[in-house]
């Protein structure tokens, strides 16, 4: 009768133990996402999570003839036409706008050859989920307090990590007045370039609005805050030596997992921090979340990834005619190829 020699038996035993150990490590660390949700494709790609393409839109207070209806329709049509990745749309609606959204979506789908995945979220529930953030931000960054949930809509991006399902790891929140010149895939690829500490990705504001907001602070302090981006350093000893125009929130990339994990973030959205920042910079804004991102980007630059202006090529020229003609073009210039055009302040988008 054949009996295996001892060394071979020992080898097989060791191999067995090794395999068992590897399985334990795998199921402990790789099988679940950091937020605890199971990951369907982990068996195929044990070390790489599948990419997800979550697009968030806000569609509220819409009536039959409101411009938002057409903007929403055009944006959906445009994105479906030009994009190559499987998108999931997450749409924040109120009860009456929901029916109009359904109508627009089925119209777009019937005229394209693509199916779309979408899910609705009730604006009142969203507002409730972020009411503490809204209470802290509104006195500093809203022009006039409105209704309970119209205020909240200004700050959705800051609390989206509570609204999105816990399994959702990243999100792209878009205004509806956008036009994609290129594949939305390019925007999602920017997540891969985030520095490890970044929670949000934003493109610069392309007008002197923050020069205006910060004028009181700037006369007193020799600061680069609100200054347009120079090609060379204008100050060697400051945090932002080449200037800092602030951010625009028409396109917001959000690493939801990173925010959920971040201890710093919960500190930063506290009343004390917001009070400290707004009084330090004598900052009184009116543009909601993007005012806050601008302050955070100046004070805690690690938390925001600056994506290039081609990803949010704003077109609004209002400030050119309102006291800033001499410097407007320094803010407005954008040398990167446009991926997204942003028809802000109701600017018509040239196609
Ligand atoms: C769809 O996208 C292609 C480029 O991918 C473009 O040439 C065409 O004009 C677009 N059509 C519409 C209706 O936007
Ligand atoms: C909207 O609908 C939901 C559920 O259908 C309901 O709970 C909510 O009260 C409604 N809101 C308004 C403002 O009618
Ligand atoms: C934030 O702090 C200020 C100043 O201490 C206070 O007046 C205000 O009521 C606080 N706001 C919130 C939402 O706690
Ligand atoms: C501001 O600071 C820069 C260097 O950081 C210096 O070159 C410049 O002269 C200063 N301007 C004023 C008005 O103090
Ligand atoms: C987002 O943040 C998490 C946690 O910090 C990190 O593991 C991940 O690589 C980041 N980027 C993306 C695209 O998920």
TrEMBL record:
The chain crosses the membrane at residues 12-32. One of its GO terms (cellular component) is endoplasmic reticulum membrane. Keywords: Membrane, Transmembrane, Transmembrane helix. SUPFAM superfamilies: Nucleotide-diphospho-sugar transferases (SSF53448). It comes from the Eukaryota. The keyword Transmembrane helix applies. Signal peptide: none annotated. GO terms for molecular function: xylosyl alpha-1,3-xylosyltransferase activity. The keyword NAD does not apply. GO terms for biological process: protein O-linked glycosylation via N-acetyl-galactosamine. This is Xyloside xylosyltransferase 1-like Protein. It comes from Tribolium castaneum.
């Amino acid at each position: 009768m054949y009996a295996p020699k001892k060394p071979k038996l020992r080898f097989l035993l060791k191999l067995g133990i090794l395999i068992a150990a590897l399985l334990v490590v795998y199921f402990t660390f790789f099988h679940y996402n950091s937020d605890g949700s199971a990951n369907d494709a982990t068996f195929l790609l044990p070390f790489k999570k599948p990419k997800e393409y979550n697009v968030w839109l806000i569609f509220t207070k819409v009536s039959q003839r409101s411009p938002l209806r057409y903007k929403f329709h055009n944006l959906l049509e445009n994105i479906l036409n030009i994009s190559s990745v499987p998108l999931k749309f997450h749409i924040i609606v109120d009860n009456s706008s929901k029916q109009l959204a359904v109508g627009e979506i089925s119209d777009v789908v019937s005229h394209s050859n693509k199916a779309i995945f979408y899910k609705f979220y009730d604006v009142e529930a969203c507002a409730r989920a972020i009411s503490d953030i809204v209470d802290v931000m509104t006195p500093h960054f809203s022009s006039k307090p409105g209704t309970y949930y119209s205020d909240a809509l200004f700050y959705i991006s800051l609390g989206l990590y509570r609204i999105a399902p816990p399994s959702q790891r990243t999100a792209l929140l878009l205004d509806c007045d956008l036009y994609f010149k290129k594949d939305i895939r390019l925007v999602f690829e920017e997540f891969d370039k985030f520095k490890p500490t970044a929670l949000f990705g934003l493109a610069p504001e392309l007008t002197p609005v923050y020069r205006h907001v910060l004028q009181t602070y700037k006369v007193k302090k020799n600061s680069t805050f609100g200054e347009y981006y120079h090609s060379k350093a204008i100050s060697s000893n400051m945090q932002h030596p080449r200037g800092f125009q602030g951010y625009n929130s028409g396109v917001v990339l959000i690493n939801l997992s990173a925010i959920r994990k971040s201890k710093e973030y919960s500190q930063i959205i506290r009343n004390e921090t917001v009070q400290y920042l707004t009084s330090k910079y004598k900052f009184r804004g009116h543009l909601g979340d993007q005012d806050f991102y601008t302050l955070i980007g100046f004070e805690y630059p690690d938390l925001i990834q600056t994506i290039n202006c081609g990803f949010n090529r704003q077109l609004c020229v209002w400030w050119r005619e309102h006291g800033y003609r001499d410097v407007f073009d320094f803010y407005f210039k954008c040398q990167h190829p446009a991926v997204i055009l942003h028809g802000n302040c109701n600017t018509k988008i040239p196609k």
